[in-house]
Specification:
- The complex is a heterodimer of chains A (504) and B (41).
- By secondary structure, chain A is mainly alpha-helical.
- Chain A is built from 23 helices and no strands.
- The radius of gyration of chain A is 22 Å and the shape is globular.
- Chain A starts with 12 loop residues before the first helix and ends with a helix.
- In chain B, 83% of the residues lie in helices and 0% in strands.
- In chain B, 24% of the residues are buried.
- Classes of the chains: A mainly alpha (504), B mainly alpha (41).
- Chains A and B meet through α4, α11 and α14 of A and α1 of B.
């Protein structure tokens, strides 16, 4: 039983930082940030960096400190902080991130499938006839459109790919923190940075590539007046860094007592943004260089996350000399980014299970089985995948609100003194930390309202017949229903969770 | 590349990569200091 197992810890600060980078650098850095940054340019990047310091860093710092202090998973640590009365908040945070882990294993599976496809293409390009690449490149064949349509809807290939992802993740995490997560991150993260640098270096020197950088970096002062860009910047920072997910609590729970919470958080957070910017410097020049006109390039960026990465980019890469090689590197980086993010998500579930006195290996198997069973509908149907991404993506903002509430209740200045400053060489002011915690709480409430008010669904609450529109992919009714189920579970079983995960 | 884009690039890269490198240097220095003092395992 795990109660007899020696508590696991990262070897040093670099183990924590690499885990934090692996957690934060995910598919979003490669498919969401470059799109938004390309649309709003340097104005967005400045605001996005501003919100890194205002929203993400205080929350990540608090999470890392909570995990390090209590040495427990999300339910146990947040339950200890909030007490029995607010224990359900920690359970909700856990359920939201579990919701993400279940469908994110599907994204990782897709990324592996595309890496395999690009490997086949590269082999055929170098040693074979190159017909595969010619099919990718021909716009009349629609090879990539068809491939993606088949993979994302009722595809056994997608199921096999995400099963493979889960199996590899269980194998890694079953080895433990030092031998599993830390060792794998030591390879994945530096390689990911190198691969992104290679793609960026190639893309920038392509004819027309500089135009992509022009779009990325031009600061339009007038855009600062647009509230939409502020909201996009704060939301992207929250989603991209993983602030409020509880993942940093999990990473912190394996941290040694003497680790510096503040410095490690700043380094991880700035590292995540550097990777995202590097990805944008690779993707935007590539899209602009390979599109016929600037207008076409902008249309591609407006096409959505999955369309950009899974249909547009492979087709564009195939049209250039040496493109299969570049495409192979890009999808290698994409698979690494996705895999390095699914690991801490699954570790979050494993840590909570080991807190419940289940052995590490058994916890890894249970987590894998849960990801496989509950993630299956997302692998089978793109509409369900998009629904889950939307419901739990907005749910993360609620998680951030709950964590900031628990800190407000404890007293932000006291929290900083008791939890964060211990063993920190690098310190931030108590006024800054307190102000940001209050800001996160109120800004979070506004953001949840704003995103739900966007009206992505034609019938946000009730359908044309007046029925509760729960099965619509982007409806508010779907969001509220699924959050309500999570909250009911958390509140009804609050006492049980407290007894089994917190008091134990 | 226009002058506005070059200025924007310098600002954005300085904040993002500059920040990352600065904190990286602080961490490396801190580790070295602890190592010299015999605190690091």
């Amino acid at each position: 039983m795990s109660t007899q197992e020696k508590p696991e810890e990262f070897s040093n600060r670099w183990g924590i930082i690499l885990a934090a980078l692996g957690m934060a650098i995910g598919a979003g850095n490669l498919w969401r940030f470059p799109r938004i940054a390309g649309e709003y340019g340097g104005t967005f990047i400045i605001l996005w960096m501003f919100f890194l310091v205002v929203w993400s860093i205080p929350l990540l710092m608090a999470e890392l400190a909570i995990g390090k202090y209590y040495k427990k998973g999300t339910i146990g640590a947040l339950g200890r902080l909030g007490g029995k009365r607010f224990n359900w908040m920690g359970v909700f945070v856990t359920l939201v991130t579990m919701g993400i882990a279940f469908y994110y294993s599907v994204v990782t599976g897709w990324s592996f499938r595309y890496f395999l496809l690009n490997t086949q293409n590269l082999i055929d390009y170098i040693f074979g006839s190159g017909t595969m690449n010619a099919k990718f490149a021909d716009p009349d064949v629609h090879y990539m459109d068809n491939f993606w349509a088949q993979l994302s809807n009722s595809s056994w290939q997608a199921v096999v790919c995400y099963m493979f992802t889960i199996a590899i993740a269980i194998w890694v995490l079953g080895k433990g923190i030092k031998q599993g997560l830390e060792k794998v991150n030591k390879i994945l993260i530096p390689t990911l940075f190198i691969l992104l640098m290679i793609v960026a270096a190639f893309a920038i020197q392509l004819p027309g590539g500089i135009e992509g950088l022009e779009y990325l970096f031009t600061i339009n002062v007038e855009l600062f007046k647009d509230p939409n860009i502020w909201i996009q910047a704060i939301t992207d920072s929250a989603w991209s860094t993983g602030a409020g997910w509880g993942l940093m609590i999990t990473i912190g729970s394996f941290s040694r007592k003497k680790e510096d919470v503040t410095l490690n958080t700043f380094l991880g957070a700035f590292g995540n943004n550097s990777a995202a910017l590097l990805a944008a410097m690779a993707i935007l020049p590539a899209v602009f260089a390979m599109s016929a006109t600037s207008g076409e390039a902008i249309d591609f960026l407006h096409g959505g996350n999955t369309a950009l990465v899974f249909t547009v980019l492979p087709q564009l890469f195939s049209q250039m000399t040496g493109g299969p090689f570049l495409s192979w590197i890009f999808f290698g980086a994409f698979a690494m980014a996705a895999f390095s993010s699914i690991l801490p998500m699954m570790q979050l579930i494993i840590k909570n299970l080991t807190d419940y006195s289940i052995s590490k290996k058994r916890a890894a198997l249970i987590t894998g089985a849960a990801c496989f069973i509950i993630g299956f509908p997302s692998a089978w149907s793109l509409a369900i995948f998009e629904n889950q991404d939307w419901v739990w993506g907005v749910g993360l903002l609620v998680s951030g609100i709950f964590i900031s509430f628990l800190i407000m209740r404890y007293g932000p200045a006291k929290f900083k003194r008791d939890f964060i400053d211990d063993n920190s060489d690098f310190k931030v002011s108590a006024k800054y930390f307190s102000a940001m915690i209050y800001f996160i709480f109120f800004a979070g409430l506004f953001l949840v309202y704003w995103w739900m008010d966007q009206g992505y669904s034609e019938y946000p609450w009730f359908d044309a017949d007046g029925n509760w529109n729960v099965f619509d992919t982007f409806s508010n009714a779907s969001i509220v229903t699924q959050w309500a189920i999570a909250l009911i579970v958390a509140i009804v079983f609050n006492g049980w969770f407290y007894k089994k995960f917190v008091k134990k | 590349m226009s002058q506005a884009a070059i200025i924007g690039m310098i600002i954005c890269l300085t904040i993002t990569f500059g920040g990352f490198i600065t904190f990286l240097m602080i961490a490396l220095k801190s580790d070295k200091k602890k190592s010299d003092a015999g605190l690091e395992e």
